[in-house]
Design a protein that fits this description.
Elements (H helix, E strand, L loop, with lengths): L1 H39 L8 H27 L4 H18 L4 H45 L4 H16 L1
Length: 167
């Protein structure tokens, strides 16, 4: 009972923290939109190109964090894949805005490639682990089809029929 109380308290504190973080992010979003509106009225936009691009990309980054926050409130967790996607797109945006330094471009490109490789390995390992998890069920099913008259097969058929009825 005490463990459930602790878990509920933790979820309340986490929910309040996410709400406060959302309000702060919304404040920064409004600030960026205001700055973009002010830059729109300036005559010489070519001098402020990097500033305008940075503000636009920050605004899109805000929407990604909104999606993360929404996922947290709907599913009560945030997947690692979404963090990886946001990291990759943030690095790509950063590469688009700050492309003056050649060594910096190379380092960012390597970081983006590494993050993509990690994402591919993560997705592959999740599929592989899921396949391993269901491999025993598949072998039991194949055995049951090949040996229909054994006692173990009869038990497996009743278990499999029960599993099919749940679906």
């Amino acid at each position: 009972m005490n463990n459930k109380h602790l878990e509920k308290s933790y979820n309340v504190v986490l929910g309040i923290g996410m709400l406060v973080l959302g309000i702060i992010m919304f404040g920064f979003f409004l600030k960026d939109v205001w700055q973009l509106a002010q830059l729109l009225w300036q005559v010489n936009l070519t001098d402020n190109f990097y500033n305008i691009t940075r503000l636009i990309l920050e605004t899109f980054l805000f929407f990604e964090f909104v999606v993360l926050t929404q996922e947290y409130f709907l599913k009560n967790h945030i997947s690692l894949e979404n963090f990886m996607y946001i990291g990759i797109t943030a690095m790509l945006r950063n590469l688009l805005v700050y492309h003056d330094d050649t060594l910096g471009i190379l380092i960012q490109s390597v970081a983006i490639g590494l993050m993509i490789i990690v994402l591919i390995v993560y997705r592959w390992s999740r599929r592989h682990l899921a396949d391993l998890e269901h491999q025993e069920e598949r072998t039991e099913f194949i055995f049951a089809e090949e040996h229909p008259n054994t006692e173990m097969t009869k038990n497996n058929h009743s278990v499999m029929d029960t599993a099919k009825n749940r679906k």
